[in-house]
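Hi V.,

Quick status before I head out on leave. The structure for the redesign project is tokenized and pasted below; the design run finished overnight.
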């Protein structure tokens, strides 16, 4: 079972909790992720957002990902100051490939069916969602919130949302997040090339990266 701290929520006994699930490799987590999570929390009046660092994502099996415990600890450090944010080891505790549909099912079990889940992801991921495991089931057990960066082709996104909504009878929302112009890939390359990453991510995460020598040999990752 994933590990995270449960807090008492002031809700009606029969009212479903509104929970955001922010999945990602977080390699490293940066301000774009944090701003997106807070914007969605505020827009949809969520009681909390649970960050779920990916364990062994099948769609990135050829990528040179950092050790999952490094990614988990960076996420923990980055979210510690926000009382609405929590971090789960749901996927990092598992062996083998991890899949979003299994993660959401596990959260339904952990909350005893008393929560409604919003899966927060980048708009780019919607282009790949048809390759995800049991995508038809996924649309039945959670709603999607696609976070876009400024300049993203909204017409293409809306067409994609319309197609997926019609095909799977699911619900997909989108919000524009200016800070999503920040890229984990760009941060890794900057670190590898000894270029400053200050103000792109929380200082505690920056310190962790340099202290543990992350990304120094990942010019092509």
């Amino acid at each position: 079972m994933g590990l995270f701290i449960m807090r008492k929520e002031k809700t009606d006994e029969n009212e479903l909790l509104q929970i955001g699930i922010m999945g990602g490799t977080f390699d490293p987590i940066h301000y774009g992720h944090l701003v997106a999570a807070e914007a969605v929390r505020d827009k949809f009046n969520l009681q909390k957002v649970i960050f779920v660092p990916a364990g062994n994502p099948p769609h990135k099996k050829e990528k040179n990902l950092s050790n999952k415990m490094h990614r988990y600890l960076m996420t923990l450090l980055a979210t510690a100051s926000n009382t609405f944010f929590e971090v789960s080891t749901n996927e990092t505790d598992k062996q083998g490939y991890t899949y979003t549909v299994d993660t959401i099912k596990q959260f339904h079990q952990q909350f005893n069916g008393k929560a409604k889940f919003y899966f927060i992801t980048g708009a780019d991921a919607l282009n790949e969602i048809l390759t995800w495991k049991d995508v038809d089931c996924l649309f039945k057990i959670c709603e999607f919130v696609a976070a876009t960066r400024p300049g993203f082709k909204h017409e293409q996104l809306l067409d994609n949302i319309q197609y997926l909504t019609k095909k799977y009878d699911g619900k997909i929302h989108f919000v524009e997040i200016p800070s999503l112009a920040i890229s984990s890939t760009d941060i890794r390359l900057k670190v590898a090339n000894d270029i400053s990453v200050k103000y792109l991510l929380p200082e505690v995460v920056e310190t962790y990266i340099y202290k543990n020598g992350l990304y120094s040999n990942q010019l092509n990752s």
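Above is the designed sequence. Confidence is low (pLDDT under 50) at residues 1-9.

G. will cover questions while I'm gone.

Best,
W.
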